[in-house]
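Input.
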Amino acid sequence: MSWSRALHRLFPWTDLLLFWLPCLILSGTVYLFLSNGVFVLFVLVNLGVWIGAIQWQFNNLFFQLKLLYITVIGIEIFLQLLAVFHLLPGLNIKHDVPFGRVYWTKEGDGVNSRMNRFGWYAMESLPEEGKKRIVLIGDSMVEGVQVEKSEKLDTRLQEVLNTPTSSETQPVQVFSLGHSGAYPGSYLEYIRHALRYYQPHEIIVFITVWNDFLNALKVRQSLDYSYIYYDVRSSGELYLLPESKAAIDQLHAHLERNRSFAAYLWMEAVRGHLLLPWMVRKVRFLVEQKGGATASFVEEQKTQPSAQRFEAGGNGFIYEKTLHPDARHALAINLKLLEEMLALTQSHGVRLRLVTIPHFPLFFYQEAPDRSWSAEFDDLDLFLPEKHLVTFAQRHKIPLLPGGQRIQEEGVDKQTIHGWYFRGIGHWTPAGHAQFARMLDREWGAVFRSENR
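Output.
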């Protein structure tokens, strides 16, 4: 291949310079020896040559653009087919807009779905008169993008509660406002949103003890996006950190936008269903990745007694029997936030309930006996955060379902528990969602069905 042909492949306009520019120079040279009349003729000839050259170039460019378009469409169709059969590994999409794309392969068999009309990963549903309305609020455990919507906690709970038990059974609606990365600071804002748009009779807040405490502490986070942080003054008063006011405004603007049905949101949803841009973004992220945003926190964690026993992403310090100063701090913030939630729901005549979601680390499966196991390991107590919340709930008369203690009381073997979480330590599997729906039904199902509002 000649150097000019190789250069042309890189830059299709190259031949315009390599061929027609010398022609122009030659024509100019001839002009010096010709009369004015002949010069006009040469100008017209060169003009015709140039027009022909430009037209050829545009035709060539159009052909290349058409070829590029066909190639892109072909790649997109191929990616969509792979996604249908869950054969597109390493790509995880959760587009938080109405009808946004959800494609998840990080855990489970793969999910290829979409958000509902309001941008939540939940079944389509609107509040209906004459039905008991329950709103579930939590983090990624409640959101559940790792499983199909029909297998999620909210769907399973609604099915269980609407199973006829007597002629006086009241129809129940269950709404899920779960979001990845949320914690009690966010839950407070989700409650405000739920009170405004869902008119709930009951709000159930799920506390993931594994990381909800970590997320409360700004000093233990290294995030590159807006987050809501609170702190507690020496007087015991809860206050919002000034820089978090913008994060709250952004959150509510996002929630309101998703209910607006604006035309640009439809375009955003359509764009988000295209897989090729997500793949390009994924590749760029892998190229630019330099160890992750929380690397400094992981290094810091190694100095803690519990660090070697827990997986990254959570907070082992919260389980230490001798409370770490950060554990006391995080606990104080979260309990004050729960007091705010209680006051807010009571002011609207809504019942607040709490559920704790336990975490079982790898060493639990390796060291605990199959049955009659204990949650205590040397200087660690896996149910310690839950015990603090139980004491708090009793003091404030808040109904609370302590997930870890209930599982222990029921004598569930550790192999069954392992099956409720992906890899035993991740998010809920379909079996995990179903199990917690049954636990909620056993704990409060009779109340949910019989109360008339």
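Confidence is low (pLDDT under 50) at residues 1-37, 291-303.
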